[in-house]
From TrEMBL:
Name of the gene encoding the protein in the UniProt record: serS
Species name: Candidatus Aquitaenariimonas noxiae
Positions bound to ATP: R261, R262, E263, V277, H278, Q279, F280, E348, V349, S350, S351
Catalysed reactions, semicolon-separated: tRNA(Ser) + L-serine + ATP = L-seryl-tRNA(Ser) + AMP + diphosphate + H(+); tRNA(Sec) + L-serine + ATP = L-seryl-tRNA(Sec) + AMP + diphosphate + H(+)
Localization of this protein: Cytoplasm
GO CC annotations on file: cytoplasm
Binding sites annotated in the UniProt record for L-serine: T230, A231, E232, R261, E284, N382, S384
The protein's assembly and partners: Homodimer. The tRNA molecule binds across the dimer.
Coiled coil (UniProt feature): 37-102
HAMAP family: Ser_tRNA_synth_type1
Protein name: Serine--tRNA ligase
Database matches in InterPro entries: aa-tRNA-synt_IIb, aa-tRNA-synth_II, aa-tRNA-synth_II/BPL/LPL, Ser-tRNA-ligase_type_1, Ser-tRNA-synth_1_N, SerRS_1_N_sf, SerRS_core, tRNA-bd_arm
Pfam family name, one: tRNA-synt_2b
Domain characteristics, as noted in the entry: Consists of two distinct domains, a catalytic core and a N-terminal extension that is involved in tRNA binding.
Length: 426
């Protein structure tokens, strides 16, 4: 959330930010509502002060047995006016807050300006695109041949775009999750968290999914709870409405969760196989840091996610997102895209973002600097470290063999009890 004072002092910057994000939000109306709010507060405060003074005067007049009827009648009118102002103030503040919740974060100056993904910039690439002496199969063909994922039965159990892992497929999924958690906790300094998969409306609002993205979320109608779209939501909200001490920062958390997304509006788009599913596993990285370090922390976060792919020896590229493609809450974001040879395309497996104080304002997360009594808003970051099922897609298609079997990446062999090859069981 952007502070109204910030919007007022940086009106041109905020308007440019909204234009560059290819959005339409009436900032003039926001400022007008804030001006009305301040005007109401000023009048109400003046009348309440006047009423307090008059109350003392009336008490004295009654004590002196002086006629106070006109003064009492006057204050009755003042009381009625105060009630009117308080009612209008509630209306204005509610409307203003709704508008503020719909204003996105301001992109960092290093973010490319452009209306859509075509203006993203490739920051770097890693690894070599594999070459085959046969036509590489798609992951859909591979999982059917090896009998490790059953998409038709998943559809029968739940519906389209859900996954049923089985046998070696289930073991591969579990091995990847454990491999990533071990890497981030043992080598990158993150503390493991295992949070709830259901969160309340305040949590979803705090990280920016609500109100803008509610149609993309799975909601439990009777309880007004939401299945999490990412571990970012419960993990970031661990410190909602809290003040941390500076000496406790930075805080690094990692968490495995299942993630749930309705993908509203994506019907018919990349829906084959494991590319766009409604439930998927992910290992998330979340940081709580001091403002002056947050962009350096973003680069470090990105490298933590990249190392997962480097250890698995999977070629990828890092993409700096443009203003038209960056997420609602992010100030700067990198995507990591894996190469999938069977599909002959890149697949996003991670988004690493710095939200600056945007989420912290919504969730009211602060820290108290040393030698200061005034608490300040913290900066939050998060990134996928990394997401499945697209990671599985890239592994199956990259490590496939001519006979249909799949080699196990060296880094995963210990997590599969020494197994080096995934092949169909007779």
């Amino acid at each position: 959330m952007l502070d109204v004072k910030f919007i007022k002092e940086n009106e041109k910057l905020v308007k440019t930010s909204i234009k560059n994000r290819n959005l339409k939000i009436d900032i003039d109306k926001v400022l007008s509502m804030d001006a009305e709010r301040r005007k109401i507060l000023q009048e109400a405060e003046s009348l309440k002060n006047r009423k307090n003074i008059a109350s003392d005067e009336i008490a004295k007049m009654l004590k002196d047995k002086t006629d106070a009827s006109s003064k009492i009648a006057e204050m009755k009118d003042v009381s009625n006016r105060i009630k009117e102002l308080d009612k209008r103030l509630n209306e204005v503040e509610e409307g203003l807050n709704k508008m503020l919740l719909m204003i996105p974060n301001v992109p960092h100056s290093s973010v490319p300006v452009g209306p859509d993904a075509s203006h993203n910039k490739i920051a770097r690439s890693w690894g070599e695109i594999p070459k085959f002496d046969f036509k590489p199969r798609t992951h859909v063909e591979i999982v059917e041949l090896l009998d490790i994922i059953d998409l038709p039965r998943a559809s029968k159990i739940t519906g389209s775009n859900f996954i049923l892992y089985k046998g070696q497929g289930a073991r591969l999924e579990r091995a990847l999750i454990n491999f990533m958690l071990d890497l981030h906790t043992k080598k990158h300094g993150y503390t493991e968290i295992f949070p709830p998969f259901l969160v309340n409306r305040d949590s979803m609002t705090g990280t920016g999914q609500l109100p803008k993205l509610e149609e993309d979320m799975y909601r439990l109608k009777d309880d007004d709870l939401f299945l999490i779209p990412t571990a970012e939501v419960p993990v970031t909200n661990i410190f909602r409405d809290e003040i941390l001490d500076e000496e406790d920062l930075p805080i690094y958390y990692t968490a495995y969760t299942a993630c749930f997304r309705r993908e509203a509006g994506s019907y018919g788009k990349d829906t084959k196989g494991l590319i766009r599913v409604h439930q998927f596993d992910k290992v998330e990285l979340v940081k709580f840091v001091k403002p002056e370090t947050s962009f350096d922390e973003l680069e470090a976060l990105l490298k933590n996610a990249e190392q997962v792919l480097q250890l698995l020896k999977l070629p990828y590229r890092v993409v700096l997102l443009s203003t038209g493609d960056i997420s609602f809450a992010a100030s700067k974001c990198y995507d990591i895209e894996l190469w999938a040879p069977g599909m002959n395309t890149h697949l996003e497996v991670s988004s690493c973002s710095n939200f600056t104080d945007f989420q912290a304002r919504r969730a009211n997360i602060k820290y108290r600097p040393k030698d200061s009594k005034r608490a300040e808003y913290i900066h939050t970051l998060n990134g996928s470290g990394v997401a499945l099922a697209r990671l599985v897609v890239a592994i199956l298609e990259t490590y496939q063999q001519k006979d249909g079997s799949v080699k196990v990446p060296d880094a995963l062999v210990p997590y599969l009890d020494g197994q080096k090859l995934i092949e169909r069981k007779s």
